[in-house]
Amino acid sequence: METLNKDTIALVFRKKQPYYNSIEELFHSIYEFLKDNVDIVPIELNGSGTGPRALWGNMNQLRKYPGSLIHITGDVHYAGLLSIKPVIITIHDVNSILNRGFLKRVFLKLFWFWLPALRATQITVISEFSKKALCEIIPYAKKKITVIPNPVNPVLVKVEKEFNNIKPIILHIGTKTNKNLERTIEAISTINCELIIIGELNTSQEGLLLSYKIDYQNEAHIPYESIKYYYEICDLVSFVSLYEGFGMPIIEAQKVGRPVITSNLASIPEVAGNGALLVNPYDIEEIRNGVCKIIENKEFRRNLIERGFVNAERYKIERISNLYLSLYSEILG
Question: Which residues is 215 bridged to in the sheet?
C-alpha cells in the first residue's frame, strides 16, 4: 500500500484482470479529474476471485488504511468490512452477480450486498433502475443509496462521417446472453450491411453468422483505443440488450455522433433519453424495422444524432466527478 496521510481518500480498485477493465477505465477517468481537486490515490487490491483467501487478504489490506475515506469503485464490495474508516461502495450491477446456483448466490449476497450494505457509509449506484433492484436486496439500507451515473469517456469526441446507406457498418458491443447478439443477427440477416462484433464469440454464435451469411468482423479483448476506433468508423450502433445496469455503449456512441438503436428494457430508456431509437429486444421484426428506419430515413437519423449529443452532455466527466466530490465533502464534513 502506498504511503498515505490521514486526509487521503483511497480510490480502491479490484485486482487487475486481463479481460475485465470497464470499471478501471471508468474510474481512472474520474480519478484524473478528482486528483486536481482532492487528495486522492488509487489503490489496487492484491487478491482476485471469490475464495476465502482473496476475501480475507483484500479486507485485511484495507483494514489498516490510515486515510480519511475509502471509496470502493466496484465489484469488491466486501473489501472495506474490516476498516474503521468511512466507506463508499459503488455498485454497478445486481443481476449478473446473482445469476448463480443457490449456495453461491447466498454467499455472494452475504459478502457482496448484505454485510457491505450494513458497513457502508454511503452506496452509489449508476441508475435509478439499479437503485430499485438493489433496494429489493438490501431494503434496510435504501437511505444510504445515491444515484451517480457513469460518465462518458472524455477521450471520445464527435467525429463526422458520411453515412453509408448502401452498405452501412453496424457496431455491436458484447456477446454475453444479455447482449442479444443472436436476435440482432437474425434481424439484420436481410439487410445489406457489415457487422462488427466486439466480444468473444461462442460456437453457436459463429454458426448463426455463417448460416445467415453475415458479412462480419469480430474483435475480442481489445484496448479501449480500438473500441474508440470502431465507434468512429461505424455508421450505427446496435445495442438491443435484454438487461443492463447502465448501458455505456449508448452514451459512447452518442458522444461520437452515431445513431443508436437500443432496447426499451431495464435501465436503457433512462440512460438513452430521447437520443436513441428504442425497440422491443425480443421482437426480431421490430429490431429489423428500426435498423432499416435509421438507414433509410436521413432526417430521422439526423435528429437522432443531434438528440444523442444533447443526451451525452448529461454524462460529462466534470459533472459526474463533481457529484463524487460533493459526496466526499458531505461525508467528511
Answer: 194
| C-alpha cell read off for 42 | 488509487
Rounded to 10°, the helix 224-233/248-256 angle is 60
Q: What angle do CA 283, 305, 270 make, to 5 degrees?
A: 55
As a whole number of angstroms, the longest Cα–Cα distance in the chain is 62
How far does CA 227 lie from the centroid of its chain?
Answer: 14
Query: Would you state the torsion angle of the CA atoms of residues 70, 76, 81, 84, taken in this order, to the nearest 10 degrees?
Result: -10
Phi, psi of 290 (to 5 degrees): -65, -45
CB 81 within 8 A of CB 119: yes
Which amino acid, 29?
S
The answer to whether the beta carbons of residues 69 and 43 sit under 8 Å apart is no
DSSP 171: E
Q: Say how many C-beta atoms besides its own lie within 10 A of residue 203's C-beta.
A: 7
pLDDT tens for the chain, residues 1 to 333: 445 567 899 999 999 887 667 899 999 999 999 999 999 999 999 999 999 999 999 999 999 888 999 999 999 999 999 999 999 999 998 887 777 888 989 999 999 999 999 999 999 999 999 999 999 999 999 999 999 999 999 999 999 999 999 999 999 999 999 999 999 999 999 999 999 999 999 999 999 999 999 999 999 999 999 999 999 999 999 999 999 999 999 999 999 999 999 999 999 999 999 999 999 999 999 999 999 999 999 999 999 999 999 999 999 999 999 999 999 999 998
Q: Is the dihedral of CA 137, 20, 32, 228 positive or negative?
A: negative
**Quick check: pTM over 0.90?**
yes
Type of residue found at 297: N
- H-helix segments, the chain: 22-34, 52-63, 95-98, 102-108, 115-119, 128-137, 181-188, 203-211, 224-233, 248-256, 268-272, 284-296, 298-312, 317-332
Query: What domains are defined for the chain?
Result: 9-151+316-332 (3.40.50.2000), 169-314 (3.40.50.2000)
